Amino acid sequence: MKDPAQVIQDTTVRLLRMAATKLPQDIEEALKAAHKEETEEIAKTQFAAILKNIEIAATGVPMCQDTGIMIFYVKVGNKFPFLGEIESALEKATVEATKKTPLRPNAVNPIVGGNSGDNTGRKIPWINWDIVEGDSLEITAFPKGGGSENVAVLGMLKPGVGLAGVKKLVIDNAMNYMGKACSPNIIGVGIGGGADIALKIAKKQLMRPLDDSHPEPEVAAIEDELKKALNATGIGPMGLGGKTTVLGVKIDYAMRHPASLPVGVAVQCWAARRSTAVISKDLEVEYLTHPVEEK
Amino acid sequence: MAEYHLTTPISEEDARKLKAGDVVYVTGEHVYTARDEAHERALEMYGRGEKPPVEFEGSVVYHVGPVAQKRDGKWYIVSAGPTTSIRMELFEDEFLKKYKPRIIIGKGGMGPKTLAALEEVGAVYCSFTGGCGALASQGLKEVRAYEWQDLGMPEALWVITAEEFGPLLVTMDSHGRSLHDEMDEKVEAKRKAIYAKLGIQQ
Questions:
Q1: Among the four residues A39, A232, B34, B200, which has the most C-beta atoms within 10 Å?
Q2: ipTM above 0.90, yes or no
């Protein structure tokens, strides 16, 4: 009989290692395509370095020294039998992966100072819980770098500015940080709900596959429009000029209060690291983003 | 755009030869990591008349908080891409004037105080592609010392022997030129047209 806590922990250790060392395929392909498209020498050099880095990282080295603050998105079926094991297994996995991968210790106490040394501490790893119909558990490891997180913004806009105001916030933010968040970026936008809800929605968009458009055509059209506008700025990779400033813009929304237009803008660096696995009620594991290669 | 292969310690004369757009590869024993806290500590020591554990003059100061690993009693740099340099704008000018490093490496560029200090001291700022920690670690061959460990792994002063570490793109030189400032202007010039296309009122 398998130990459910151990299965969840072992799976998560692998998720954290794979996330740190190998990009999801769609991201890697988009970066390769962007490299081909550039004509300026400096932009080409930036993409060449990124692609070479990805190659070296795939041998088991964290692609970026900022291996992020540990965030998980967990979708747990209402009939998954081991709900009580998840939280402590994710925490133990974080400690283990920090040592083994290795990951940089990135959990700092904001009140008394000091780095915990193992990427855990009060409320970290942070777990986003989703309870869904079913009997399995889906875990996504989403380590988030500091540089791109530092340029996230929240706009509590006046509803009168409308969608043009939303677009302005996204454009102004990108022109303000000028690629310093390791562009090309993925931009997540969350509209409505409330301050916290808008930002939560925004961040969740960063996990959508690049070829995924919003199911509602009005939203998909804004995603496309903003992607083109951001690439037209010429900010380019690392803010040093070029054709690709963003790999994608992903938007979702919630209904808003009549008096509020909250807009969250989340930013992902090119090292868009995420790794997902599903654990069945019988503790069978399937890795979705990083399948185990048969030897 | 020229390519240079420099060995530390780097002279003021060599640093002044470098121009924005040039590419540099660095080799040598005077390569140090320093982020916010290491800068502050070095400046505090200077203020107290104490000598830091390394020779900064002619050195390469890299804005990075590396992932390092100890294997068989020896430290190795595993992944070490640049951190955002603008945070160090608070004290980089003073650091440059007091310690005279010749190359500062980071990402995103720095501000006017640093640019002026580069000109005064004879030094350059180089950009290494952000996020490329695995690639960077290939040029950071040996950890000779791990100083100021109390600051924690990312903030500590790592003393490194580099071998052909690069490509480093000179983005701020000692002649007053900053590619970052030039990019800001180029992008700003497009704002109006982009607003118009999106229906944004100025």
A1: B34
A2: yes
Neighbours of A103 (CB within 10 A): 27
Alpha-carbon gap, residue A67 to A53, rounded angstroms: 14
Write out pLDDT tens, residues A132-175.
999 999 999 999 999 999 999 999 999 999 999 999 999 999 99
A229 touches chain B (CB under 8 A): yes
- Interface membership of A225 toward B (CB under 8 Å): yes
Answer CATH for A146-268 from 3.40.50, 1.10.357, 3.40.30, 3.30.1330:
3.30.1330
Which residue type is seen at A80?
F
pLDDT for the residue A179: 84
Per-residue pLDDT of A29-86, as tens digits, reads: 999 999 999 999 999 999 999 999 999 999 999 999 999 999 999 999 999 999 999 9
The 3-class secondary structure across A55-121, one letter per residue, is HHHCCCCCCCCCCCECEEEEEEECCCCCHHHHHHHHHHHHHHHHHHCCCCCCCECCCCCCECCCCCE
B152 and A46 within 8 Å at the Cβ level: the answer is no
Q: Inter-chain contact A56–B135, Cβ cutoff 8 Å?
A: yes
Architecture of domain A4-22+63-145+273-287: 2-Layer Sandwich (3.30)
